[in-house]
Amino acid sequence: MKSPFPAEAGPTPAKLCASYDLGGGVRLADSFAIYSIVALPPDWTNLKIDPETLAELERVALVVANKLPILTTLRDSLVPDLSALPRPPRPRSQNNGHTHPCDHLPWFLINAARYSQHCVLGHNDCLESLLMVSQRPWCILELCCCETSTVAAVHELVMVATKLDYATYSPALRLLAHEVSQRQDRRRGDLGSCDFTGALRQGISDTAWEDAFIMYKELSKSCLRSHNSFWIGLISTCAVYLGLAFSDLVQVLGDLFNSPLTVTPEVSSAIKPKFDTRPPRSSALIDPSTHVARRTEKLIRLRRNSIDVIPHPKSYWHIGNNPTFLGQNFSADVPPVRDLLNLYGEILRGFRENL
């Protein structure tokens, strides 16, 4: 059976979005844009998909598309509304080249949590666009900032996707399952007084400890390493350990820092929750010869989702591979952040001691 996911030549809305992203994410009008420019695995070109599974994927993808705008082409009227979201400049290191984790905050996630509307800029079609972003833990955490019904629909899609490739989609399945579960018992109103320091003293159930360990192990064995892997690991592990939704922990983190973000767009465009298939009226908007397209490779190390492909064996995983982090206590200017960093260090040390 021929793969239902043909290769798309040339620029795509996702690639155009990537060319704008400087680490804080991108907005399309009044919506936070979620995207991935990393191609599907090479072996998918010869993938034989059961017709019933494919039909189920397409059905669930349509459900998601009715809740979350998924664009695979950009109309002329929408391109001017595409712009980078702010990320405060990183301070110059004054400590022998070592920087503090707070100098590299995940602003793309913080910005995603501050937006009430989201969209996906993708490739080819609705289904492929969703399958691509669902492979990336950082994209899943952005999707976790959407409305509850949207998160639940994406969770259903990923459940079906694991029938095709469990190893690729199991991290997304675990992340989304946790988010959906915690949304049912949300205590966002109490988060302002979260005591990260007391979390270990108060004791955590064996189930919470095991769940946090499994989450960390699941994300660590991925063959794709994000340049934001520290904060992705911290948010994912600590949220599970503390019994919080990822979106809530990101919101707490964002509330502790000031940023120049203004969520009210200068020009608002109507982006409706449905798959947009209309071709752009001017192909020059995303033509490979344009300046925007040429910027993509130059900026690849600055984007929030830049990755290194690392050929780890399937059984590979690691615990706390940063001895500098594990061997210190932090004294950040914001006490809750210091406590959260120290909590993460204690959790990782606990993992290592209990192996």
List the helices and strands and how they pair.
Blueprint lengths: L12 H8 L5 E3 L2 E5 L15 H15 L4 E2 L10 E3 L22 H8 L3 E4 L4 H8 L3 H7 L4 H14 L4 H18 L14 H5 L3 H15 L3 E3 L2 H14 L3 H10 L19 E2 L14 H8 L8 E3 L13 H4 L8 H19 L2
Parallel strand pairs: 2-5, 3-5, 3-7
Antiparallel strand pairs: 1-2, 1-4, 6-8
Keywords:
8 strands, about 350 residues, two-stranded antiparallel sheet, 6-stranded mixed β-sheet, alpha/beta
Describe the structure.
- The protein is α/β, with parallel strands linked by helices and 355 residues long.
- It has a 6-stranded mixed sheet with strand order 4-1-2-5-3-7.
- It has helices at 13-20, 51-65, 107-114, 126-133, 137-143, 148-161, 166-183, 198-202, 206-220, 229-242, 246-255, 291-298, 323-326, 335-353, and strands at residues 26-28, 31-35, 70-71, 82-84, 118-121, 224-226, 275-276, 307-309.
- The model is unreliable at 262-269, 274-303 and 305-317 (pLDDT under 50).
- Strand 1 and strand 2 form a beta hairpin.
- The protein has one domain.
- 43% of the residues lie in helices and 7% in strands.
How would you briefly describe this protein structure?
The protein is of the alpha/beta class and 355 residues long. It has helices at 13-20, 51-65, 107-114, 126-133, 137-143, 148-161, 166-183, 198-202, 206-220, 229-242, 246-255, 291-298, 323-326, 335-353; strands spanning 26-28, 31-35, 70-71, 82-84, 118-121, 224-226, 275-276, 307-309. A hairpin with a 2-residue loop joins strand 1 (26-28) and strand 2 (31-35).
